[in-house]
């Protein structure tokens, strides 16, 4: 009898324990929240805040003078408007230069040391200063690779395809993302291409995201400093640089970057070289906080830049 009662108690206890752990397992799977780090796609969308200058006041100042109107974060003359706004996106500082030009010729490229070649490098600010650029961001760092189309300022320098997605700027001012596998560099030139950058990927087409939440550049970290060029409309562009790799700035995934550009109304958007290369220079001043290792802020030497206008005296 005692042996029977003992077996009963063991059975009851075992049943209770099995029920408890089964219930806990279900709760663990379906109810109990656990933080395993930052997800590629924000569960509640992007977290965005902004700060900048009053554009109406800048416009009024321009209308009252024939000289360029320049502030810490804006430039306007009769042909060029640049207004820089700082955003906070998913714990990352993002700098957006809203650029409008009277003609696409004011958007151009410059090589480090005025030289096309391999391992010819200098910082974005050095190149920008030499060509007197109003605004400059790093380009595609063509000199670190032996392949990828290179057309700059209407001249074909390299026609070696690596089947990248390239960003094309045509004489008309239109931007388009094309695949090297579907068109030759020579044909792009015949079609009126004046700039072709080969890095990628494309981020937006016709305002729609063209990257997935898991897509990344090679073996890059999921979140990084970024540089992107976008088009909103005719002769209307955005140049975007984000910080990253520091305790204050997480950096952005490609998908987060595409989502953010979409909120700004971009129609075509393209990812340029990022990481330690990501740099924005305005009127000779570095606007963001470029870093390669996250421990110190310094510009990386690169092979090329994308520029807006020439500074007027």
| Binned strand content | 25-35%
**What is the overall number of helices?**
5
**Strand segment count:** 20
The level of helicity is: 10-25%
Rg from Cα:
25 Å
Overall mean pLDDT stands at 86
Structural class: alpha+beta
Parts with pLDDT < 50 across at least 5 consecutive residues: 20-44
Describe the global form: globular
Q: From N to C, what is the helix and strand string?
A: HEHEEEEEHEEEEEHEEEEEHEEEE
Number of domains: 2
Major β-sheet, in short? 10 strands, antiparallel
User: How far apart, in Å, are the first and last alpha carbons?
Assistant: 106 Å
Can you describe this structure?
The chain is α+β, with helices and mostly antiparallel strands. It has helices at residues 2-30, 55-63, 124-130, 185-190, 254-263, and strands spanning 48-51, 69-71, 74-76, 80-89, 93-101, 107-111, 133-138, 150-152, 155-158, 165-170, 175-179, 193-198, 202-205, 208-209, 226-233, 236-242, 268-271, 280-282, 285-286, 304-310. The chain is built from 5 helices and 20 strands. The strands form 4 sheets. Strands 1, 2, 3, 4, 5, 13, 14, 15, 16 and 17 form a 10-stranded antiparallel sheet that branches. Strands 6-20-7-18-19 form a 5-stranded antiparallel sheet, covered by helices on one side. Residues 20-44 have low confidence and may be disordered.
